[in-house]
Amino acid sequence: MPATLKDSSTRNCISNYLKGYPKQIWKSWETHVMWLNNLRIYSPDGEIERGSILIRDGKIEDLLQGAARESGINCEGLAALPGIIDFHGDMLEREVEPRPGVHLPIDLGIFELDKRLAASGLTTAYPAISFAWHAKDTFRSENRAIDLIRAVNKYHNDCLTDMRVHSRFEITNPDAGQVLINLLGEHQIQLVSIMDHTPGQGQYRDIEAYIQFAMKWRREKMGMEISEEEMHENVRVAQERPKAWDTVRMVGQITQKENIPLASHDDDTPEKVAMVHDMGATISEFPVTVEAAQAARERSMYTVMGAPNALRGSSHSGNLSAADAIAEGLVDILAADYYPSALLHSIYALQEKGILPVAEGIKLISENPARALNMEGRGRLEPGMFADITLVQEGQRPRVRATVRSGVPIYWDGHMSQLEGVDLSSGYQIGHVVDTIESPEERIAS
Prior knowledge:
CATH architecture of the largest domain: Alpha-Beta Barrel
Low-confidence stretches: 1-30, 424-446
Shape: globular
CATH superfamily of the largest domain: Metal-dependent hydrolases
Number of strands: 18
CATH topology of the largest domain: TIM Barrel
Structural class: alpha/beta
Number of domains: 2
């Protein structure tokens, strides 16, 4: 047994990590050594233009300049990035309800999204699940949000990616506050964000623009027509709804005690940032103004912007441009938001525009989210870290060729199957397979 596994903190970290693995992988797990040779490696100590990665027992054991003398997988023409970590993705709700009123089985939605995420280079993902006051028959209603949260936890061990729950609490829905607190007590939630979508502030500061957006959204997404007069009345009602700031304070206390990250969503003023920071928020998610982003930076909060925003060069809702904020040094993390493939593509687009080199952009989708989410052992390619690796064919449109999670390939396309050193005839067996030992759970227990 490697000496590092005897350390209790390392052992606990590995134990928690292994909980997210598909049972069928661990059932047939064999201690193995895998070399990835002849590839570009983005490591914290600098870029290795042509190097090799030694993976032993699910962790990175060594990084070498040049090709390893041992046989392995020849990854000529590929680059190794740390496995991508997504902080916020809205895709799960759309998987289980692709059209208004069209409900698909939750487990089907989870597994289909999981495959998509792995193919996009993600090893860890936090699907965002909302409690929204205006939702009655959608998966943003209270009961259906609860069903989604419980399902993600139930099927967590059967997913390829490490899928966790990002619960979004709308403060104009005070009735959901106790539900959120109960779920936190049951350890069903791993990340909380506080939202206020009341028109006239936050993302919807321009009320007239909000009304036009809402009318278009209802017409195109829900097949419903609504007049401007009705929308103005809806805005008035929304603005009069009480806001559950007392619940936010309670949630802040719980998350601090349980070491669960707390984020504030759509911050628009320095005053809002100061208030949520005092309540325990350590993350400002999608700030809509430069002033709010600067205030978050002054308080050492992590700032999250949308990867689609960075890729496109502008916000779809006319708010702060992620590319501009990155150029000003105000962004720590990029999130999938509604498009997971944008995570990888955005960092190459930023380099193409001369805003940020890929080596720095990688931190926005790996190292920094790992730090913000209190995840030890992830986010960097260096010895001792889990072997979470995204293998990419670089270019203006980079392509994910393989995704490896703790040394286990969870996505592997046809390009990879033809590489020298890959043997698919014996199932999961890559590189050198050495003596079979007990399962990882048994190793950790020992």
